[in-house]
């Protein structure tokens, strides 16, 4: 199977890190097609950047999604998830959504850690949309300096302390570590906390594989049916592929 | 005061209808500055179009928001609301969010009516984000043909029947009629139902005025603080105005 | 427009402070008609006093509500709100309800601060009735001595510390400061906290104005329709005005 | 033990029906002291009447509560429940609250039936305050003519049909029949429905007895601690008994 | 009346402690029939033991439930509660469920204290099934050594400190102390905390008595109707008594 | 990988149907080890049978779980799920839980269909424990005769009609068809409904595979840590394997 990994950030180094994590998580036979937005925020960290990245991500789907079996949204805000799910001919999962579902399937309530004080409320909204708030043991922030987004290794200690606090006082039985920026650090942190740490990219890959294996029918009614033919103005023609109505 | 009404659809006729409704609702001294997206969907009716419209709406804010006192999102999906709220230097309200808050302030649970079967789930998400689900008496759909979006007068009877069902069986004590497409029909429908019908544009105008009157401080921390200086790639330079950090 | 401000406490000095705040928040052309209960608790701070004040507040509505355009309940427990809303011919808002709605319209979750340990649970009930609990970042108490209710200036430092704790640890993005006792202190506290502080009286005034501007129809069915003709025993005749059934 | 049954309606015939039901439900040794409000609504059926009755009910507690072991609020809106619970030296239960708790202890979700379209939203608020909404299978209305409130026997067929609908379509596994007006009809209706029907007065009596048996300590902190000494203006002196602070 | 107290632990000393507490709580005329599981965990403290105990508890019901008027589940995980409630011909209450309902009927939100870090999540599930989560002020753990389960007196200080923290910071207005292991300590702890402490066995006894007094009809439809005739394989024949279908 | 499929029913024919569905859903290289309870209910359809089956399922885990990579609970009540998850050294998923999570990952709200009026409330409890109630579009029952449990083909028409009702009126965007009894019918029904139909066994297999791929650490604290050494009385010695404390 081919899994399209869409990085809505315009930083190719992040895509590479996500791709490496995805390959390590994927089973043999899964090809990871990782693409990077060509315009938009360097690193999505605000609501405004989230909005600016969405359209570009839909375009990436139009360009690359045609022969893929599943799509993974490789932005920890699950940017554009509902639109991509509606428009793609195949299953789509968000990395944070995937991590939360996987954590819940492991049992108990999960703790959630995200980078940056500004992002706390954005992640809160992401979590509420997923719908598993009664399983949230606590949500914490790891403060990050701009350089940490490119090399977060220096903050492993802080992440571990935050994680242990969620376990000891919040009684979290699993942890979700959000932020594409953390991709690649999971193993090091996991070794120091007593509950499973779920990485969004890894969870996204295995759940995307699971949905492909399930061979679900595509809904033909409802808000996730393929969008019907619609009229667009001044947008790249490639988007037309997504609005062909009942495609065969 | 100047109220920037942002229509994310690229159909200028819709902007005109919204502007007329807004002017009728506004008090003397409120200037309505209504702008239309120059690229994007003709009429936003799917999740994908919602995503495609968001970035253009942020650009409209960057271009026109500088000297405005409040912003009204004139798309019934409250498209881009959280991003616009973060980026704007002034209060921002969404038309559906405004209608729901106003309905709740009138007392009792509200019924919600939206156009189009495909949009039911999209509106559900909009309602859940607002956070007043315990006040939702029921959500119904009015099926619409494409031409109805430009001239919905023919479907007033259907809307009234749907509304009465929500009142009689759902025990709704107020009604929110969503969809920019319905702008202008509120009076005719109101005359035939026994509970207050709240129009999104009108509610948005009066609540935006209220927030301006309140003169709230701008948060300098949290997810609705103004976005700090950030690096964008390949986007219109005007967007830079929104990322100047702590502006004075 | 005429806004009837009903103080259910029998302390006229509180009415004066509320009136001053209301006038400062009101737009030109809004007349504030502030009335004080002539019997009942000096300061409502318990559930029992709340109950004892309600009937007197309904009587004040019967006496003064005839030619008003909106009513503001100037007790931070939103005392009698649902009854006043049913009985009044015009929109009615509670000061705490108004502050919570306004805070949510500014974006993010709000922190709530109220005076007195005994009142914590009473405010909890007030908040739950409003229905925006998923937006509550945290609820805190400021302990008060009896004299503080008449001159709360001395406790500004405590309020600020409590507010900063809600912002830093609860991640509140706005604050609601409840208690008619705090009326007049908002500006001083606001200057020392990094998120908007919403004052109940001010929010109540601007939202009441907004609802009047909206010109909503009065429901003729449901639990907020005007009460029909009913039989009362041993109560002041003026209350009869509220039970005239379908008044014209 | 002595159980004070407070009827907030001024209709003595209703008190008599409640007293008879209470005696039938009480165990030997429980004395039912039933009192009727001397001023207020003839029959509480609106929010306004609810507000007008509350103060009078608190006065009844002050007059008659001194040597009672528990209090039962015999109004199906649980009128003044939180105030009476704060002010009384002994346990207090509301008849609807009691019925809902008892229904849940029998297992499964309950259906709720109340009289009068106007009251639907009032009962909704009562149910939400109780906090067991996830156990609500459905809420229905039985329309009533004024004379039905005094002699509801004629509407047994309608109640039964409503009840069966809640069982068959709402999958209710128990039923709460609210309204003091229905006191005395439970047996007749029960014989015709396949799930337990819980009467508020009977449930209130047995749960009040249970709380007395439990001999709970009185909270000395929090919002249900006895109200401290407070200053009242122009109210009957008997109310002073409720505000003596830490009574021995 | 005869109250069957089922201890799913195989430790007879625990049954004796529960029986003593039950007798102290019961009113004259209530006979406590206390039975102990003959196979299963010595002390149920994990999810696995919970599962292993359930079938044995159903067998105890089949053996002893025939002439009882009510059943009390004397395991603080409310082990097997829903099955026993379905199978028993009479009302069934769980000790933790009973304590939570009783606490809520006393007013305000309750704090919950349970023994053992491992059990925190198990109690969380128990609480969520009860359905009164909006009334939960906080949930805390008292760490216990194995010997504490047989003689918990030494940890009274720790329980009191935990309780006071729930009152002071969580604003709990009542406390539920879970764990059959704590049976008998309630009085000593109560004397040192300022809000009512509800003991599960005592609450279970008084609520079971209340339900018997209520004389509820047995549902003949729904998931708590008596189980119809069913085919079992390799189980003790006494269980057949529970599957006789519509028994007379 | 080896996937242990535990059928808690004692009907081997059901195990065979589940095994066939599991094999069809599994990817190459996944071995399905399907085991059947040797004592207990023939078909689990009541709460009591659920309780009677649990201990036997734990024994099956003790006997067969040692060299498995994941466990699938093949009873649609997710019988014993939390205990098996605690006790197993590997990931455990319930078939209904898996179907619900998979449905939510496909987007939108799901409809739920289960067999038998008696089971409605049992499934409701199963759904509430999963924690995705805000995504539940509706829950319906398909009435079944005893013979249908062995050959449900005859009721495909009824299931389809029920499913279409959930789609058309409940606006379900996916469907979960619960009940091991339906195993094998999914394809036939799917062909006649316009939204994806998720089969519990198939979803359980693909999600179990996903969790194995994720290689999650085993929690060593919390309520899903492996149970420590505990003392059992009169139970099969094989259970001792599950209580060895920190196993290597």
TrEMBL record, chains A, B, C, D, E, F:
Question: Which Gene3D superfamilies does the UniProt entry name for this protein?
Answer: 3.40.50.12500
* Pfam families to which the protein is assigned, alphabetical: Asp_Glu_race (PF01177)
Q: Which GO terms describe its molecular function?
A: amino-acid racemase activity
Q: Which domain of life is it from?
A: Bacteria
Q: Which family does it belong to?
A: Belongs to the HyuE racemase family.
PANTHER family linked to this entry = PROTEIN DCG1
Specify the protein name: Hydantoin racemase
Organism name:
Siculibacillus lacustris
């Amino acid at each position: 199977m081919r899994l399209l990994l869409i990085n809505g950030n315009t930083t190719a180094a992040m895509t590479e890190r996500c791709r490496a994590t995805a390959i390590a998580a994927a089973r043999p036979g899964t090809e990871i097609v990782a693409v990077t937005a060509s315009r938009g925020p360097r690193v999505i960290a605000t609501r405004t950047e989230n909005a600016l990245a969405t359209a570009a991500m839909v375009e990436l789907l139009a360009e690359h999604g045609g022969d893929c079996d599943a799509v993974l949204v490789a932005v920890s805000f699950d940017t554009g998830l509902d639109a991509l799910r509606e428009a793609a001919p195949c299953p789509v999962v968000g990395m944070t959504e995937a991590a939360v579902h996987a954590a819940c399937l492991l049992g108990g309530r999960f703790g959630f850690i995200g980078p940056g004080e500004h992002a706390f409320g954005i992640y809160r909204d992401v979590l509420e949309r997923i719908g598993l708030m009664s399983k949230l043991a606590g949500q914490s922030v790891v403060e990050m300096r701009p350089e940490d987004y490119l090399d977060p290794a220096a903050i492993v200690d802080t992440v571990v302390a935050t994680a242990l606090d969620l376990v000891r006082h919040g009684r979290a039985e699993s942890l979700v570590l959000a932020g594409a920026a953390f991709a690649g650090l999971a193993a090091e942190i996991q070794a120091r906390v007593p509950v499973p740490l779920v990485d969004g990219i890894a969870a996204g890959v295995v759940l995307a594989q699971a949905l492909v294996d399930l061979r679900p029918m595509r809904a033909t009614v409802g808000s996730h049916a393929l969008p019907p033919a619609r009229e667009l103005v001044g947008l790249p023609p490639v988007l037309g592929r997504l609005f062909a109505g009942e495609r065969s």
